[in-house]
Amino acid sequence: MVNRVEKLSLLSEMIAFAKYDKDIKSIEYNFLLGVAKQLDISREDFDYLIEHPINYIHLKSHSERIVQFHRLVLLMNIDNEHSPSSVIKLYNFGLRMGLSHESITKVLYLMESFPNKIVPPDVLIDIFKTQYN
């Protein structure tokens, strides 16, 4: 399991992703706040991260990186208004996490075929398992 500093880093990364093209929309804020609660991060710490991001910490666990990538996919599609630049940003975040470009590309391609462009967790895991083995 990830420690507190890693959790703050994950959340900070998601905040940076949400702020990439614009300010954080209320729907994105609420989603991120829900993730913060899942990670056992207080609202005060979450709000602090919005104005004071922390450095990225690379997760050692491949499964944790997949979960984080899935969170980013959900965040990108939460308002159904993603631009080509946000897709590129997501791709780059995935690469930075050490995920295979084949898996990332496949997720982004398959995303278009699912309702609301949200890839189910089991499908996403299968994609990464295939590439990881």
How would you characterize the overall build of this protein?
With 133 residues, this protein is an all-alpha fold. It has one domain. It contains 7 helices and no strands. It is globular, with a radius of gyration of 14 Å. The two termini are 22 Å apart. The mean pLDDT is 88.
Tag the structure with descriptive keywords:
133 residues, mainly alpha, single chain
Radius of gyration: 14 Å
- Total beta-strand segments: 0
Q: Write down the overall mean pLDDT.
A: 88
Series of secondary-structure elements, N-terminal to C-terminal = HHHHHHH
Structural class: mainly alpha
Total domain count: 1
Contiguous uncertain segments of 5+ residues: none
Provide a quick synopsis of the model.
This protein has 133 residues and is mainly alpha-helical.
Secondary-structure map:
Elements (H helix, E strand, L loop, with lengths): L3 H15 L7 H13 L4 H9 L10 H16 L6 H13 L4 H11 L9 H12 L1
Helix pairs in contact: 1-2, 1-3, 1-4, 4-5, 4-7, 5-6, 6-7
